[in-house]
Amino acid sequence: MSKKYVYFFANKKADGSASMKDLLGGKGANLAEMTNIGLPVPPGFTISTEACIYYINHDSKWPESLDVAIDEHLSRLEEVTGKKLGDENDPLLVSVRSGAKISMPGMMDTVLNLGLNDLSVKGMASKTSNERFAYDCYRRFIQMFGDVVKGIDSELFEKELTSLKENKNVKNDTDLTAEDLKELINNYKIIYKNAVGSDFPQDPKQQLREAINAVFDSWNTERAVTYRKFNKIPDDLGTAVNVQTMVFGNMGNTSATGVAFTRNPATGEKEYYGEYLINAQGEDVVAGIRTPQKITNLEKDLPDSWEELKNVYKTLEAHYKDVQDFEFTIQENHLYMLQTRTGKRTGKAAVKIAVDMVKEGIIDKKTALTRIAPEQLDQLLHRQLDPEVEYTDKIMTTGLPASPGAATGQVVFTADEAEKWKEDGKKVILVRSETTPEDIHGMIAAEGIVTSRGGMTSHAAVVARGMGEPCVAGCEELKIDIKNKQFTVGSNIVNEGDYITIDGNNGNVILGQIPTVDPKFDDNLKSLLSWADDIRTLQVWTNADTPKDAKKAREFGAQGIGLCRTEHMFFDEKRLPIVREMIMSKNKEERKIAVNKLLSFQKEDFKGILEAMNDLPVTIRLLDPPLHEFLPQREEIKEEIIKLKYTGGDENSIREKEELLKIVNSLSEINPMLGHRGCRLGITYPVIYEMQIRAIFEAACELKKAGKNPRPEVMIPLVGHINELKPLVAMSKKIAEEVISSYGVTLKYMVGTMIEIPRAALTADEIATEAEFFSFGTNDLTQMTFGYSRDDAEGKFLGYYVDQKILPLNPFQSIDTTGVGKLMKFAVENGRRTNPELQIGICGEHGGESNSIEFCHLLDLNYVSCSPFRVPIARIAAAQAAIKHGDKRIVDVRIKKNHEHNKELEH
């Protein structure tokens, strides 16, 4: 028995249904569904996605049975309609539309009025007693077929139409007579022949075959491939083809065409929303050729059809239980439905619609939560560009959308300038080739950040996300000239002080000032998040380095801090000289004196953060980066020495600079990421960690004496061997107990480690004998597992790898579950075999990404930790994971479950 490739729908009965989107595409499945529920759908048939996949995989050839099947279903359509394709007296005309499983801009545009030729157009004119209408349909068909099927520049047809209207001294298409349209058709045929090399086809079956092939071919057009890539849609789905009897909205003033939503897709309000045109065909509405009317005006223009349409609004939403975006045509006061699909909506509308539908009893809370794309919430948490302002012609370049939100400011090129200009009351955008921890003061001062190098997990991206500040990274077209204080993009030259605007949601860098609008954290979002909290089993913590960030994260619902980076605390103007004094010390005694100067600063830092997170755990990572990051750049020092010597500078100053250069050279490393940093630094320079640990516990004890309930957790970074962890855990506990005893308080605390080196994951059973918690540092774990330098890979080849399907996803954006994920699974299982009470979380940037959160749920982690502004996103994603998978886990079932720990972590 041959495979079924064609599915029929007519007269309230269809071969398919809404559940068959894989086979019929979204459009075809919904045409079948609307037919089955009794809505007025013009009859037709759908050619399945399987036919498209066969065509693509067999050098543009059809399956053997497809020709016969199409002929059979065309005959059925002719029987149902009482018309024949190509008939000279009363021709059957059809539309041909693409329709993939997932609605995809970039697929083939619709072809209307297929079946018309030089003879059938006369029959149509006679049958309808409307010659102008018939020839208007024919000229539209030639233009659509030429443009959509043959790829002829549509502007050639439009110019001919415009020229004719000017010659006839008329304003609108509808003012052209039948004779005018005949002249236009002849000119269109000439355009067609000049472009294609043959006459416009007169055989309707040839027209149909070519249109079907064009739909199949459109699956692999550049814009379709680009859209799939951006939205992570598989390439092997294929598209269906929908062949449907034509109905006409251009048969006079009792006919119309329109597009509508069952609710407002911008605001979520429950109202009649949409547009229509009297005496027009469907493409006229979306093409913007004429200005459409608000849908509610239809009550005045065509009152009977308006009553039918209101029933359609009600029926569609009651049946699909979601907002529908639908197209309709009214032909001489008869309403017909041409398609429906789930309506796309803004983040604000998505939240309101989901909550309202629960209140209205249409859906339950779990369904409401699955309706939200977690990333949509970014629109509600950050400033956005004013949607009323058009600016596309001012976009200079597009980089990576590294941190969401939008900002406008004057360009500066150094962190010091950013801070200085901020003090003068100016708003600035910091533009750098890349940022380092030394730039932190300027990053804080700036409204937003642009880098010409780096990726989604670069220093600039990570810090910006943590601060809730927009960032566009990896703008390789952007050439920075620090000496002349300007950057160029193509022919655009932007000087220091010029205004630019950045959009971290899409990576656009825009010339000039574009207005921005404030976000709104409304009651609907609060309701949705509270439902998510009732369902999820993963806790959501935050990565925060300042009391301000901690408070913001707590406002957004964070249940702890999973990563407090201490290195960012050393870069202000008071502390950096002390850090440099420590690094340049000649012996342990000098180093200890310098380090002790930092103790009071660190204590205040930790005190502020612990107080902001009172009653909640705060995981503080001891110093992680190599020491050379706290010193000036080698080239800068060399330049200063040369300048001093050239200008006859002070000998003592020259000697100091030369001494500094020696130290920088001695600390310089070929590969600092794998060098003298993290726990290695703590073992070889223990005074640094001793100071930090003492500062943590003195801060906590002072808060405890003041009646607060701090919950510190000390995290030791970059451990690869149990023998690295043992002395540092012992040091931490010894200092902790000494401080707690001296203050005379009781204090619960934990000492654990980051799992960011593959060897640590592979020896997790050993590590768990010393660590009370694991926190996966997935940024470094991914780097070391793949052997990729994160900043270099994202800017150089990772995009190409994803495009070419070498990698399914960028592993720095979404956890590589089959590689890095296996290490994580191994560590969870073996760590908990050693210590069933082991608390495990994730603090890498993946902690705020929905697919990674789903994987963490399946790993039975206790928490995910992410930047403050991603906390609401993570709460929704964690709930969606719980809804999708329930109690299913991929870790060894013998391991003790941790759901009770997740509800109230005991320390």
Tell me the number of strands. Answer: 34
| Low-pLDDT ranges | 899-903
CATH architecture title of the domain at 537-626 and 669-781 and 817-903 = Alpha-Beta Barrel
Largest sheet: 8 strands, mixed
CATH fold field value of the domain at 537-626 and 669-781 and 817-903: TIM Barrel
Number of helical elements: 36
- Amount of helix: 40-55%
Tertiary shape? elongated
Overall radius of gyration = 33 Å
Question: What is the beta-strand fraction?
Answer: 15-25%
Q: What structural category do the secondary elements indicate?
A: alpha/beta
Gap between N and C termini: 66 Å
CATH superfamily of the domain at 537-626 and 669-781 and 817-903: Phosphoenolpyruvate-binding domains
What value does the average pLDDT take? 90
Provide the CATH top-level class of the domain at 537-626 and 669-781 and 817-903: Alpha Beta
Order of strands side by side in the largest beta sheet? 15-25-24-17-18-19-20-16
